[in-house]
Structures are given as structure tokens and as C-alpha cells.
Amino acid sequence: KDDIYVCVVSNTHQVCSKGYYLAIVSTTVETNDPESELTPGLNLLGDIMEKFVCVSDIYEPTDLGESSKVFITKSYDATTHFETTCDDIVATYKRITGEDFDFSKVKHTLQDEQCAE
Predict the structure, then answer these.
(1) Which helix (H) or strand (E) element contains residue 23?
(2) Per-residue pLDDT for 68 more than 60?
(3) Following CA atoms 77, 82, 88, 90 in sequence, which dihedral angle do they give, to the nearest 10 degrees?
(4) Do 78 and 37 meet the contact criterion of CB atoms below 8 Å apart?
(5) pLDDT(46) > 80
(6) Res. 1: pLDDT tops 90
(7) CA-based Rg of the chain, rounded to a whole angstrom?
(8) Helix, strand, coil: what percent of the chain each, to 5?
(9) Among the residues of the chain, which ranges form H helices?
(10) What are phi and psi of 109, to 5 degrees?
(11) Which pTM was predicted?
């Protein structure tokens, strides 16, 4: 039912030796056999030299911080591209400041910074 995420990095990313790849396959667990839920993603990888399986609980705050002034983000989820984590950070910013984050004020490169001067 949930998506399976596959992220592959290599020597280009400076995380492993040339000729090797590091893959992360993740999903949200739905059964009592989480490893089998990853099988379609693992099958895309071909031969696997070594595999580690880890199941992590996901937590989210019970108090949004409006009254306690304690602002806590959610746990990381199965997504490998951190979209939901970024959404959570932006939502937490709004809970703290009461304002939307203005992405137009973000300088992306040194050239952007020099152009603003």
C-alpha cells in the first residue's frame, strides 16, 4: 500500500569506493514481516554484497508547542528525499514565529549574495 523508496549513492558522492554503490530501500511497515515488504525495491538492486535491516518507530509531538512553547519536529519517515521533513520544518517555523517562511529571501549561491549588494 505504501510506496517503496530506493536511493542509490556511489563514489561520485564520496560515500563508498569506486565500483561500489550504497543503496537505501525504505517503506512504511504494514505487516509483521517488514523485510519482505522491501523485496520489490531490493530486487531492483541486483546482487547485494551486504544488507542491514532496521525498523524504526515514527514519533510526532502530542503538543504543537503553542501553549508549552516547546517545539518538537516529527521523526524521519520512509521518504529518501526528505520532502516530508522539509515540510515539517517549515510548519514548525510557522508555529514558532506565526509567519510563513519566505523562501524568496534565501540566497542560493555566492553570486546571488553579490548581486544583492
Answers:
(1) strand 21-27
(2) yes
(3) 180
(4) no
(5) yes
(6) no
(7) 19
(8) 30, 10, 55
(9) 34-37, 39-43, 83-97, 110-116
(10) -140, 170
(11) 0.70
